Amino acid sequence: MTTINVNIDGSLQFIWDDQLQPLLGLGTPTVRCASHVEPTHDGQWTLDLSPVGGPVLGPFRLRGEALDEELRWLHDHGF
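Structure (tokenized):
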């Protein structure tokens, strides 16, 4: 599910989805990372949400599981 927030100043805020790339042409975009998904020494994955003030989660067996959790966490916390 994609949510696009329209701020009071008219700016848009959304979690990146390649299908939304055309929106970048509407103004001067600012893109920032919400997390870091990193491998562990034993081949698992951690999700570090500190760029948005969140926790470090994991380990996850698959990188895709960490990415799915990133989206869940961001939606649950109003991003």
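The CA atoms of residues 3 and 78 lie 10 Å apart. The first strand starts at residue 4 and ends at 6.
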